[in-house]
Design brief:
It contains four helices and six strands, in the order αββαβββααβ. By secondary structure, the protein is an alpha+beta fold. The chain starts with a helix and ends with a strand. It holds the Pfam family RsfS.
């Protein structure tokens, strides 16, 4: 499987895991054409509480580990679960509590990215 297909499979599993735990406002940011970006792709979503944010992060890690046998290179933010970052190197997942996401306004920060919105399934 080539790198593009592997990355798409990883993205699909991440989005599925977020949807399984009812994560909201899922967006995929393609940063591959942005100079000096820290990753090729960001997946961003929101949860309604620190419990849901922690469950979203755990769900992503578990689904990717069980189905693709991949573990994140780095995870941070699980202590207070206001903003959890799950880093798979080419894909970085940002899981925010809603008010934290609004405060940091990451969408504006990466406004040059190609953004795909995932429709909620519920």
């Amino acid at each position: 499987m080539n790198k593009t297909a592997e990355k798409q499979e990883l993205l699909d599993k991440i989005v599925e895991a977020i949807q399984d735990v009812k994560g909201e406002d899922i967006m995929i940011f393609d940063l591959s054409n942005i100079e000096n970006s820290v990753a090729e792709t960001f997946v961003i979503c929101s949860g309604n509480s620190n419990t849901q944010v922690a469950a979203l992060a755990g769900g992503v890690e578990k689904k990717v580990r069980n189905e693709l046998k991949e573990r994140p290179w780095h995870v941070e933010g699980t202590e207070n679960a206001m903003w959890v970052l799950v880093d798979y190197v080419s894909v970085v997942v940002h899981i925010f509590q809603k008010q934290v996401r609004e405060y940091y306004d990451i969408e504006e920060l990466w406004g040059d990215a190609v953004i795909t919105r995932i429709e909620n399934e519920f």
